[in-house]
Amino acid sequence: DIVMTQSPDSLAVSLGERATINCKSSQSVLYSSNNKNYLAWYQQKPGQPPKLLIYWASTRESGVPDRFSGSGSGTDFTLTISSLQAEDVAVYYCQHMYTFGQGTKLEIK
Amino acid sequence: EVQLVESGGGLVQAGRSLRLSCTASGFTFGEYAMSWVRQAPGKGLEWVGFIRIKAYGGTTEYAASVKGRFTISRDDSKSIAYLQMNSLKTEDTAVYYCTGLGEATQTFDYWGQGTLVTVSS
After folding, report:
1. Distance in angstroms (rounded) separating the CA atoms of residues B18 and A75
2. Which of B19, B1, B2 lies closest to B10 in space, CA to CA?
3. Interatomic CA distance for residues A57 and B59, integer angstroms
4. A48 pLDDT band (50/70/90 cuts)?
5. Which of A38, A49, A52 lies nearest to residue B114, judging by beta carbons?
6. pLDDT tens across B1-57, in order?
7. How far is the alpha carbon of B43 from chain A, nearest alpha carbon, in Å?
């Protein structure tokens, strides 16, 4: 089974600064049949269900602010928030198929 | 507007059964695989299982932790998905989310608010 490992487990970033979260998979999630990386990112705010932010590693879901971006291929991926806003405080999860990373808690410094 | 509303959670003793329901609206239910994801208190997300659409046989897949104890079913005429949980264990205590699974992207596109299941010893 594929294991998804996120780093760091938590981080604190100042408002307006960049936040970077990493996700590493134990096997490649790039499918040669369509050249797509099946890697998604979710945001979960306190008391709420998760919300899909990014799929195929870098495609933003409709309505997601463009300060959120995803990158990477194969086994190494990154979620970047270019300019942190107060409403971005949340736990972020990466996901491949039926496996989630352990989550990264993002707070304001 | 897409809505998924879970119901049926509550407090149950270990070894007993519970059935959760998920009522969907705002999208074509029969065209979506439906999945359950759970989250133990203060912990991360754990996929429980999913059921394919009828066109793909309506078959199911389960996480190893629940296989043989949990069963997912669907009633497309009512836009409801079910999670039958038998032989419950204390480690099954969690918020259970109903989700719509995007086939092309293999992502959990839609989420309900969740229902809490507490299994006591």
Report:
1. 39
2. B19
3. 28
4. very high
5. A49
6. 999 999 999 999 999 999 999 999 999 999 999 999 999 999 999 999 999 999 999
7. 8
pLDDT, mean over chain B: 97
For strands B60-62 and B45-51, give the pairing. Answer: antiparallel
Put simply, whether A38 touches B (Cβ < 8 Å) is yes
- pLDDT, average across residues A96-109: 98
* Residue B118 structure tokens: 């507490």
Is B97–A49 a contact, with Cβ atoms under 8 angstroms apart?
Answer: yes
What is the pLDDT, as a whole number, of residue A6? 98
> Could B107 and A52 be called an inter-chain contact, meaning their C-beta atoms sit closer than 8 Å?
yes
CA distance A99 to chain B (A): 7
Query: Which of A48, A52, A93 faces B45 most closely, judged by CB atoms?
Result: A93
pLDDT in tens, A51-85: 999 999 999 999 999 999 999 999 999 999 999 99
* Inter-residue contact A57 to A47 (CB < 8 Å): no
- Distance set, CA A93 to CA A10, A32, A105, B24, B117 (Å): 12, 24, 9, 24, 22
Q: Would you call A102 and B44 a contact, using CB atoms and an 8 Å cutoff?
A: yes
Query: What is residue A83's predicted lDDT score, i.e. its pLDDT?
Result: 97
**Which residue, among B35, B97, B106, would best test binding to A if mutated, counting the most A CBs under 10 Å from its CB?**
B106
Q: Which of A51, A93, A97 is opposite residue B44, by nearest beta carbon? A: A93
